[in-house]
User: What shape does this take?
Amino acid sequence: MTALSFNLKQIGLIRSPYTNNAPYQPVDEDTGDFRIIVDPQYVGGLYKLAKFRYIYVIYFIDRISHKLSMETFPPWANGMKVGLFASRSPVRPNPIGLSVVRIKHITGCEIETSGLDVFDGTPLLDIKPYVKDLDAKTDANYGWIQEMADREHLLLHIKGIPHDY
Ligand SMILES: C[S@@+](CC[C@H](N)C(=O)[O-])C[C@H]1O[C@@H](n2cnc3c(N)ncnc32)[C@H](O)[C@@H]1O
Assistant: This one.
């Protein structure tokens, strides 16, 4: 196979309170300024987006400092080793991030959202509506996370939810 290279365009940027330490995944009840700012030339693409409650935010994970490896050790998983593509690690051959967040308000080219798991200024690649039934799979499972002792506790870590133990 000849591997092709592609050019992607930044279409905006993401504002968040995080400069170097973000949650592992979006935290719905996170507080702070979370905004997606779309470049004015794409603002027409937001027409009717506010009708949806949730969106997929797709972005370029631009400040990776770790070396790429096909094996990864999720930081919350007690040393468990998994293949990169069985993980949500940000260190990937194509460092593209995907987060589902709730729309709070859309004003002009700015979308105020619930909590995001990205650093401030992360380049925006795309936005897509999250559609009930189309996107929520009722038979989804926990994959290898299912095999871990204390799964429910670990899921609180993944989701960045504060807890007492
Ligand atoms: C585990 S990744 C998950 C990203 C996305 N929700 C996903 O599943 O594709 C989230 C982590 O990426 C890192 N991160 C966020 N924005 C980044 C950026 N612009 N450059 C480098 N690392 C970033 C933070 O350490 C954050 O905890």
Q: What stands out?
A: The mean pLDDT is 93.
